[in-house]
Amino acid sequence: MQNSQSLTTVLFTNKDYKNLKIIKIIDGTSVDGPGLRTSIYFSGCSHHCPGCQNPQTWDIDFGNKVDIEEVLNTIIDNDFDVTFSGGDPLFQVEEVTLLAKKIKDIGKNIWCYTGYTYEQIATDSRLSQILPYIDVLVDGRFDLNLRDISLRFRGSANQRLIDVRKSRPEKIVIWED
Ligand code: SF4
């Protein structure tokens, strides 16, 4: 395991210092992607899906302000791959993209849950900034009518596990274990 303090001192400059709004960080979960992962639950969501299990997360003021360096230190200390969840991580896409870049610099795999579809993200100049740093996108709003508890890593059948590295808007490639 690397020494987080010295590594982040190298990775960050003052202009990188930005705050994230985070509800919680779970160290070593196995339900948000393959293997043990550090899952980060970000505040804020504008999708308001009927049946959402955590409507309190829609509010950007639900949770705590945490600086990116502190989150990265936790990820380095845990030494797991990473999942972004929420809320919708893309609600804070500028700050979350900055964190994602830093996570890729230390060689970790990133899964990202979002209520947007891959096609919406890929064709939106603001949202698409995060795609180069995401390995698997679990996309689409939760649909109560398509809820299926037997599905792996997703809540409703419309949501897809997209292999972002291999996909483009006209050809989606589904992630395979
Ligand atoms: S995208 Fe997720 S957090 Fe947002 S309303 Fe839908 S289920 Fe809830």
Short description:
This protein has 177 residues and is α/β, with parallel strands linked by helices.
Write structural notes for this entry.
This protein is of the alpha/beta class. The chain has a single domain, classed as TIM Barrel. 21% of the residues lie in helices and 22% in strands. The chain is built from 4 helices and 7 strands. The protein has a 7-stranded mixed sheet. α2 packs parallel to α3. It is globular, with a radius of gyration of 16 Å. The N terminus is likely disordered. The chain binds iron/sulfur cluster (SF4). The site of iron/sulfur cluster has 13 residues, from loops.
Task: Give the arrangement of secondary structure elements.
Elements: H1 4-11, E1 19-29, E2 37-42, E3 64-67, H2 68-78, E4 81-86, H3 93-105, E5 110-113, H4 118-122, E6 136-139, E7 160-163
Parallel strand pairs: 2-4, 4-5, 5-6
Antiparallel strand pairs: 1-2, 1-3, 6-7
Helix pairs in contact: 2-3
Bound molecules: iron/sulfur cluster.
Residues 45, 47-49, 52, 54, 57, 86-88, 115, 141-142 line the site of iron/sulfur cluster.
